[in-house]
Amino acid sequence: PEVLGPLHLLWVNLVTDGPPATALGFNPPDPSNMRRPPRGRSDPLVTPFTLFRYIVTGGYVGLATVGAFIWEYHQRGVPIEKLARWGECSTWDEGSIAGFEVACDAFGSGPGQGKAAASTVALTTLVVMEMLRALCSVSERESLLRKPPWANRFLLLGVTTPILLHMAVLYYAPLATVFKLTPLVRREWMTV
């Protein structure tokens, strides 16, 4: 089944991009900026190292999100073999799966069906990882030890606000229904 739906992706873009990006505009200036020579006219905008960093970061964020989705199904008793063949669930005659009498209900996103919990864990993993990445963006050249996230108090607000908004979507029932999400319990937060 799809890990995240269109509304989930729109939510991630809305909540994880705007506030942190705006706050990053208030980063303290790098004291060595004026001592560095300007970039050459023929130098690429995206260096090979920067491209490599984007690929690695995107790779581990994607793997963590999909991994959290798969892990949540595993925790609920759905073997990976069944998850890989979820489209054939109507042909399974082995009885219930993950506590659902009708096997396909384990993969449905409607009320009382199983996909909502896995998607919630995956979406929350993605939101939290994006906020952690934002905290690591205070400086492109210096480590977090030399320039910690609290060097930009606006960034702390720009990260806290999306987390609180996401919590509202999870725990305020009308919003959770619109987003087809379920409130996370302690075990699911441990996965995130």
From TrEMBL:
- List GO terms (cellular component aspect): membrane
| Keyword list, A-Z | ATP-binding, Magnesium, Membrane, Nucleotide-binding, Translocase, Transmembrane, Transmembrane helix
Enumerate the SUPFAM superfamilies for this protein: Calcium ATPase, transmembrane domain M
Q: Which Pfam families match?
A: Cation_ATPase_C
Give coiled-coil spans as residue ranges.
none
Report whether Translocase shows up as a keyword of the record.
yes
- What is its membrane topology? Multi-pass membrane protein
Give the transmembrane region(s).
51-71, 154-173
**Signal peptide location:** none
Q: Molecular function terms in GO for this entry? A: ATP binding
Q: What is its main location?
A: membrane
Where does the record place it? Membrane
UniProt superkingdom? Eukaryota
Supply the InterPro entries for this chain.
ATPase_P-typ_cation-transptr_C, ATPase_P-typ_TM_dom_sf
Q: Where is the Cation-transporting P-type ATPase C-terminal domain?
A: 1-191
- Disordered: where is this region? 22-41
Q: What is this protein called?
A: Cation-transporting P-type ATPase C-terminal domain-containing protein
